């Protein structure tokens, strides 16, 4: 549905109403209902453009981390903007193919690849399978032998680096399940490099997500570039180093390195190796490109009368990050309200006490039916949504060039029950 031209890119206040690329969020909520995710195509393009510009001075490939948001329409915008993809499962490979990617555009990562996923990736001939263990390299080689082909593999290394992020999204410590310990990686890579069924194409590392500083990324990059140097001395050559994703976004106005600063830091470390620099940003591309629209279904005073509960029609089944990681998201009323600000706990409708979107938020007390937007919900929002409490998966809307369209219809109870007896 077309709206007005001359729009502002992304989400923001236009006068006193919140808009996405110029379209009032209240218009979308009225037409589509709530809960609904709304995405800004312009913001996705802008972010990919920023990464491309940052890395332009050095051979590189940007593989968008599909796990952040693999809605088909989002992935199509990502593809049209020139980024490749990093898939974390067979399902994400399927989405990438449907979005128009060729196998050579896809990297497969994943700490627990099933036999079917390995077979799918080998048969397709993806750009790289990031292997997580010596055993997995054996299994990939066996499939490649059976298919009489050569599988392109990289080795995921665990550099034992502190990510300085939430413990549940830190992945680079030796106690974490990801990759092979850096001390063992040289021998494992040498063996892989010598196998006829494997083409050893790179080293991979990903130490965490929502990182607000560059130091952990520098440490990880130094570790893999050092290992690549050692392997070159061992006559094991490769094409790229893949430094994963992890760059954070400003959920609460925090200072975050720019794409330029991020790229400059990594290029400085990788340049002497001459290897192509691969990155897998997810959140930094789609995080700020999406909001969750949700309606107020109840408002009630808390004991003592100083605070209010604002109960929404969306909760942890639609957006799990606050319940899972205590994550912070700004919450705004999409239309102006004359009421004085009061202190609110903004909560979901799910039967879990952790189903809370925001504690002690100052909001003009919303009335039942008012629509609020949970901001910066484009990454790990809809991707982690579930049917808990039999909530349908929410509708999703793409706004592009002043027009909007539903890119995933709201799930129905029939959709949910179609696979049940
Ligand atoms: C291997 C890998 N690559 C890329 C990403 C994307 O990370 P982010 O969204 O933090 O950029 C992740 C996220 O967990 C990951 O595990």
Structure summary:
The chain is of the alpha/beta class and 421 residues long. Helices cover 29% and strands 26% of the residues.
What does this structure look like?
With 421 residues, this protein is α/β, with parallel strands linked by helices. The protein has 2 domains: 11-40 and 288-417, Lyase, Ornithine Decarboxylase, Chain A, domain 1, CATH 2.40.37; 41-286, TIM Barrel. The chain has 12 helices and 21 strands. It has helices at 25-32, 41-55, 72-80, 90-98, 115-124, 134-146, 182-193, 215-233, 259-270, 283-286, 321-325, 413-417, and strands at 11-14, 17-20, 23-24, 36-40, 60-65, 84-87, 106-108, 128-131, 151-158, 180-181, 198-204, 240-242, 276-279, 290-301, 307-312, 331-333, 341-347, 356-364, 371-374, 395-400, 403-408. The strands form 3 sheets. Strands 4, 14, 15, 16, 17, 18, 19, 20 and 21 form a 9-stranded mixed β-sheet that branches. It is elongated and about 70 Å long. The two termini are 38 Å apart. It binds pyridoxal-5'-phosphate (PLP). The site of pyridoxal-5'-phosphate (PLP) has 17 residues, from helix 10.
List the bound ligands. Answer: pyridoxal-5'-phosphate
Shape: elongated
Q: Kindly report how far apart the N and C termini lie.
A: 38 Å
Tell me the CATH architecture of the largest domain.
Alpha-Beta Barrel
CATH class of the largest domain: Alpha Beta
CATH topology assignment of the largest domain: TIM Barrel
Question: Which percent bin holds the helix content?
Answer: 25-40%
Number of domains: 2
Q: Name the CATH homologous superfamily of the largest domain.
A: Alanine racemase
Approximate strand percentage: 25-35%
Instruction: Estimate the mean pLDDT confidence.
Output: 94
Radius of gyration: 23 Å
Oligomer: single chain
Find the count of extended strands (DSSP E, 2+ residues).
Answer: 21
Biggest sheet record: 9 strands, mixed
Unreliable residue stretches? 1-5
Work out the helix count.
12
Main structural class: alpha/beta
